[in-house]
Amino acid sequence: MTSVATLLAPVEEDLKTLNHNLRQLIGARHPILSAAAEHLFQVGGKQLRPAVVLLIARATMADGEITARHRRLAEITEMIHTASLVHDDVLDESETRRGIPTVHSSFNNRIAVLAGDFLFAQSSWYLANLDNLEVVKLLSKVIMDLAEGEIQQGLSRFDSDLTFEAYLEKSYCKTASFVGE
């Protein structure tokens, strides 16, 4: 079986650049939001969504080079995903994520929600500046699906009568929509 590291090898350096760029992009005007945002990206993660963007860019460009617009789209996808995780941690009352205290446990729920909102807003601004209506529509739908999935999860929490179809729909909205749209 092929490892994830092997699959992501063609964009390994690009993902390092992505992490550096994210820290530059998130630099908020308010120190607490800046600290919360920095905390978010310190945790790291699989970065599957931006990796897919970068891999597709490499595969489809005639020279195999990734453009600045591709890099920005990868950054936007990671910002959206991270914002959704911050909100998810608040809703689930998670104290840690990947062994690191969550934003809300390090600061408080209010700051965590605002930090997640800030990331959604900032990613939307960068998205609009790509000037690609189809991409804007696609990622706007993904953000709507994320919110719908959270609402579905909140409404069906501890529901032992939840159907398998309803579970799949909630899971699609929270995870698969981001990859499958």
How does this structure look, described?
Helix 8 (133-155) packs antiparallel against helix 9. The protein has a two-stranded antiparallel sheet with strand order 1-2. Strand 1 (96-97) and strand 2 form a beta hairpin. It is an all-alpha fold. It folds into two domains: 4-123, Farnesyl Diphosphate Synthase (Orthogonal Bundle); 132-181. It has nine helices and two strands.
Task: Please provide a brief summary of the model.
This protein is mainly alpha-helical and 181 residues long. The protein has helices at 4-8, 12-26, 31-42, 48-60, 68-92, 103-106, 109-128, 133-155, 164-180; strands at residues 96-97, 100-101.
Layout of strands and helices, then pairs:
Blueprint: H1 4-8, H2 12-26, H3 31-42, H4 48-60, H5 68-92, E1 96-97, E2 100-101, H6 103-106, H7 109-128, H8 133-155, H9 164-180
Helix pairs in contact: 2-3, 2-5, 3-7, 4-5, 5-7, 5-8, 7-8, 8-9
Offer a few descriptive terms.
mainly alpha; 181 residues; globular; single chain; two-stranded antiparallel sheet; 9 helices
**What gyration radius follows from the Cα positions, in whole Å?**
17 Å
Give the strand line-up of the largest sheet: 1-2
How is the main sheet built?
A: 2 strands, antiparallel
How many structural domains are formed by the residues? Answer: 2
Helix content: over 70%
What share of residues are in beta strands? under 5%
At CATH level 2, the architecture of the largest domain is Orthogonal Bundle
Number of strands: 2
Under the CATH scheme, which class of the largest domain?
Mainly Alpha
